[in-house]
Amino acid sequence: MTKLSKYEKETIINWNEGERLASIYTFNASLKRRLADFSRNYPLLCRLERSTPEGGVTYVLDKSRLSVRLVPPYSEERKDAASAYARKHGFQVLTPGKKTA
């Protein structure tokens, strides 16, 4: 068993118009956890099809349960408003390499 690089640990979503099911092949820990929870809660809609020794999994699920969410970038006004809200309510902005008290 060869250790895979991060580049090789990909997520592939196979969605074709001719079938009712989609398949997701992934190494992503968060997505694997979410798919496992979903398949436990809704076994008729999602199931684990296979797992690999390297840590990849393939789930098959009903296409009606899967969506792609595209999130546009925040406008400067929205960033400024969020920053002002955080300052007003005492939220700390953490910057890498800077220790907090």
Jot down its keywords.
101 residues, 2 helices, alpha+beta, four-stranded antiparallel beta sheet
Describe this structure in words.
- The structure is a single chain.
- With 101 residues, the protein is an alpha+beta fold.
- Helix content is 26%, strand content 21%.
- It contains two helices and four strands, in the order ββαββα.
- It has a four-stranded antiparallel beta sheet, with helices on one face.
- 5% of the residues are buried.
Q: How do the helices and strands line up, and which of them pair or pack?
A:
Elements: E1 12-14, E2 21-26, H1 29-41, E3 46-51, E4 57-62, H2 76-88
Antiparallel strand pairs: 1-2, 2-4, 3-4
Give a short summary of the structure.
With 101 residues, this protein is of the alpha+beta class. It has helices spanning 29-41, 76-88, and strands at residues 12-14, 21-26, 46-51, 57-62.
Which residues sit in consecutive blocks of at least 5 with pLDDT less than 50? Answer: none
Mean pLDDT: 91
Our Rg estimate from Cα atoms comes to: 20 Å
**First-residue to last-residue Cα separation:** 45 Å
Strand order of the largest sheet: 1-2-4-3
Shape: extended
**Beta-strand level of the residues, as a percent range?**
15-25%
Class from secondary-structure proportions: alpha+beta
Main beta sheet, described?
Answer: 4 strands, antiparallel
Strand segment tally: 4
* Secondary-structure element pattern, one letter each: EEHEEH
Number of helices: 2
Q: What helical percentage do the residues reach?
A: 25-40%
